[in-house]
Write a structure and sequence with these properties.
275 residues, alpha/beta, Rossmann fold, 6 strands, 35% helix, globular
C-alpha cells in the first residue's frame, strides 16, 4: 500500500481489521481519469475535531409559497471573506472535496470511511467524517423517517458537507442515499468539482447477514417499516466515480483504493481552485 500512495507516508502500520469478507478476485472500478503527479509535501498539518450536536428541534414549517421563498432568499446576503479557496488549498496542500459514500446499511460505508480518514489524517490531510447516525443525534434530531424528513436529512447533510469542503476539508459523508432522485438533490448543492460519489456495494443478503446494528432483524420482524432494502427499494448509483465491492475486497483494500482516488482528485496540480 505504501507504494500505491507514493509521495506521502500513508501506511496501515497497525493491525488490519478483520476483512468484510474473503475474496477470490479483487474488484475495484473507478472512473477513468488523467494521470497526475504525486502531491507535493506540505509545510504544515491541520488537525480538526467537529462535534455536530445541538438541542433537538422540530423541522421548520414549510414556506407557504414560492414567492415568499424568493423574497426570503432575496433578503439574505453572504459576505465574502478575505480567505479564498486557493488560500486554504495552499495552506492544507490539497483542495476540498465531498466524498459521498452510498450503499445499503451494512455494506461497509462507515468502516471504510474510518480507515480512510485515519490514513488521510496521518498523511497530513484536513479530513472529517459525517454519517447519518451522527447527524441524527444532533443537528437532525428533530427529523423522523417520513419521505419528507429523509429528504430534509440528506439536504442538511449535503449543506454541511459543502461548507466543510469550502473550508478546504476532505469530507467523508456516509449516507444510504437510496434513490437517484435524492442523490440528484445532493449533487445540486455541491459544486461538481468538489463532489465525488462512491458506491459501496454489497448484496442485500450479505448486509442482512452482517446486520451490525440489528436493524434488518427488526425490519424483517415488522418493527421498522420502510427500511431500505426490506420495505423500501435501493436504487444503485449509475454514475458513481468509484465502486467498492465489499464482498470481493477486504476492508484494507477498499480503504486503500478510496484514499488513492482522494489523493488524485484533491491534488493542487490537477485542478487548483481559482478563488
Amino acid at each position: 500500500m505504501a507504494g500505491m500512495l507514493s509521495g506521502r507516508a500513508f501506511l496501515f502500520s497497525r493491525p488490519v481489521l478483520a476483512p468484510l469478507s474473503t475474496f477470490a478476485r479483487p474488484r475495484v472500478e473507478a472512473a477513468e481519469r488523467a494521470p497526475v503527479d504525486p502531491p507535493t509535501k506540505r509545510s504544515c498539518r491541520a488537525v480538526f475535531s467537529f462535534h455536530l450536536t445541538s438541542t433537538p428541534v422540530r423541522p421548520s414549517p414549510p414556506v407557504p409559497g414560492a414567492q415568499e421563498a424568493r423574497v426570503t432568499r432575496a433578503n439574505l446576503a453572504v459576505q465574502t471573506g478575505k480567505v479564498t479557496r486557493l488560500d486554504r488549498a495552499r495552506r492544507f496542500g490539497h483542495t476540498g472535496l465531498v466524498v459521498w459514500m452510498v450503499g445499503l446499511s451494512g455494506s461497509g460505508k462507515t468502516s471504510i470511511a474510518i480507515e480512510a480518514e485515519k490514513a488521510l489524517f496521518d498523511g497530513g490531510y484536513a479530513v472529517c467524517r459525517l454519517d447519518g447516525d451522527q447527524l441524527r443525534m444532533g443537528l437532525n434530531a428533530g427529523l423522523g423517517f417520513s419521505p419528507a424528513d429523509r429528504e430534509e436529512n440528506l439536504r442538511r447533510a449535503a449543506e454541511v458537507a459543502r461548507l466543510f469542503a469550502e473550508a478546504g476539508m476532505v469530507v467523508l459523508a456516509c449516507f444510504i442515499s437510496p434513490t437517484r432522485r435524492l442523490r440528484a438533490i445532493i449533487r445540486e448543492r455541491i459544486p461538481p468539482e468538489a463532489y465525488f460519489e462512491v458506491y459501496v456495494r454489497a448484496s442485500l443478503e450479505a448486509c442482512i447477514q452482517r446486520d451490525p446494528k440489528g436493524f434488518y432483524r427488526r425490519a424483517l420482524a415488522g418493527e421498522i417499516p420502510d427500511y431500505t432494502g426490506v420495505g423500501q427499494a435501493f436504487e444503485p448509483p449509475e454514475r458513481a466515480g468509484l465502486l467498492l465491492d465489499t464482498e470481493a475486497l477486504s476492508l484494507e483494500q477498499c480503504a486503500a483504493a478510496l484514499v488513492e482516488q482522494i489523493i488524485e482528485r484533491t491534488a493542487l496540480d490537477r485542478s487548483g481552485p481559482e478563488s
